Amino acid sequence: MMGEADEGDKKHFGAAVYTNRSYGHEQLDTAAEQMEVEILEKDAEGPTPYWVWLFIFFNVISFGIGLAIFSLTYFSLKGDTIQLALYQGTEFSQLDEGAPLDNYFLVLTEAEQSSEGEQNDNEMEMGAAQKVGAGTYCRVIATKKDLSYIEPLNGQNTENSCWIPTMAVTPVTSIQIKLLTQVGDSNTPAAERPITTYAAYGFYKGLAAFCNLQIWLGIIFYGIAHVSIALQAFKDEMVHAILASTLPIYNVVWCFMRRKYVGGYGIMALLGFVMIFGSIITQLFVPDLLPTVAGIAEAKASDVGVGF
Fold first, then answer.
1. Which CATH class is domain 87-193?
2. pTM of full prediction above 0.85
3. In a designed cystine with 138, which of 39, 91, 150, 269 is the match (CB 3.0 to 4.6 A)?
């Protein structure tokens, strides 16, 4: 006769765990505890958990892309493949404080222009179509299909309003416009001026890309951790299972409460939080950058440069 478990015994965690269960015989209880110790030791000596390699993989991807963007930006600026689009005119500096700033655009690439939205046969045959140079600041007056009708600001490499492909222009944010007004202001402290050095500009551009990617990969990483914790939590009491499956903070606390049985899933969840919130905090220290342009304007090159 083996007897029954004492009513005072603690409830065990999981069907394969024998701690605190009594089989009514001292030797059987000792054997059960030894089996559990052997199982836990075997798991501890096993291969590196998958989530460790996944964490390393995600961070290598983020770092690699950030480094690639830094390198491409730096060497392109240094080799005159692209330039920082600094506007030396008076349009932005003369804007009233409450003036709308949502209708300004920048031509990113050299674009062929037409006064009627399409080239005529003579222009196509002679190859005499006029072009709007990269780095031209403008307003977009109208759009149709894949074309935009632009009105260049004063002091640009072209003064003619014309139709160009919509994909050649990008909106200029209000923050970038405020930065542009500080370019020629000698009274602006150096710390508040736009970043125009090649290395610093490329570094911050790469860092911003790294942080953006880290946030999304961190969400994926934490999501995998949350699902893994939830599957383990349903081996515990129902109240713990529900809380650990629904509350992002409680699941980490629960993992450390049951770390003997669930391994490093709590650390996995914490690493996910670090990826997400660490990147968000880092982004607060990344300066707002001026837009870049692919190519340099052929005319009035002084209007598009990389200095004050």
1. mainly beta
2. no
3. 150
